[in-house]
Amino acid sequence: MNFTPFLGNVWMPTSASTVSDDTDMIFYFIHYLSAFFFAAIVAATIYFALKYKKRGENDKTSPLEHNSKLEFWWSFIPGLLLVVMFVWGFDQWLKLQVPPANAMNVRVTARQWSWQFDYPKDGITTGELVVPVNTPVKLTMSSSDVIHSFFVPEFRVKKDVLPNRYTVAWFEATEPGEYNVFCTEYCGKDHSRMITRVQVKSAADFEAWRETGGVPPGTSPAEAGKIFYKSFGCNQCHSDDGSGNTGPTFLGLYGKTETLSDGSQLPVDDNYIRESIEIPGAKVVQGFQPRMPSFKGKIKDKQMIALIEFMKTLSK
Ligand code: CUA
After folding, report:
1. How far is CA 79 from the centre of its chain?
2. Whole-angstrom distance, CA of residue 101 vs CA of residue 155
């Protein structure tokens, strides 16, 4: 799990997309307008309650029935403000709904409990979203099990991810950096751990990432494996420090004798690891559920070797 702790306060998180400032503006407009009217109405209620309260037995109720002029204005002004909120909100909603025609396409797959990002043009699959700065990115999202929801607070982008249809979201990041991606639809036991990151890179850095699939030239296989361990999202279910999770930890896994769900035992070697990555349901470790998706066709031979080399370093 990659997660930058967010120490919240009463204000909005940092603004890092082209829509976030406008979205905040309308939010604050409605927020402060509501706060103003709440305070004004409470103050008026208290004032009139005190002013017209019954003073003694013979105090009479006022003969006034109504005031047409006052009633018109106190309906017309809030009505007008409602129309402003609606037109402004609808306009902003449309901006959030319609991705620009030149947007870069990324496919998002949500599942219990990880995120997968596919770059169809480049044949790259990752567990962290990597995008260039100042470029519109269109996300076509689906779920392979239950309903999830894609949320990047800094971008003010949040959209449900459904199992039976595609949903679309888009954003254009304005600041390079790393931001949290949260699941915001309760989706089972590890919902709160269904967190990954979006890395916003400069155009040159993004090109370099795309060329090498995220691995800088000159990286050793074991180091590259560590990068793939994160970029494929293995780390979302398999820890590298022995801690328990949805899948077995990688610490000390390579070379040990594993007990499977049918009670049989086998050594964890290259063939077993390869099979588990391509056909995860073939041999399930005792005490775990067959939850892992297949990476067959998504992981290249070199990446497979690098991952195994990385796992070896965790068994020394
Ligand atoms: Cu996925 Cu909550």
Report:
1. 36
2. 19
Asked if pLDDT for residue 316 goes beyond 80, the answer is: no
* Residue 304 confidence (pLDDT): 86
Q: What is the pLDDT of residue 71?
A: 92
Domain ranges for the chain: 1-37+75-98, 104-211, 221-313
Q: Of 108, 96, 309, 308, which is closest to residue 196 (Cα–Cα)? A: 108
CATH number of 104-211: 2.60.40.420
SS3 131: strand
- Say which residue, 301 or 108, is predicted with more confidence: 108
Measured from CB, residues less than 6 Å from any atom of ligand 1 are 110, 113, 148, 183, 185-187, 191, 194
Average per-residue pLDDT for the chain: 87
Q: What angle do CA 172, 176, 179 make, to 5 degrees?
A: 80
| Nearest atom in ligand 1 to 187's CA | 2
Q: How many CB atoms are closer than 10 A to CB 304? A: 18
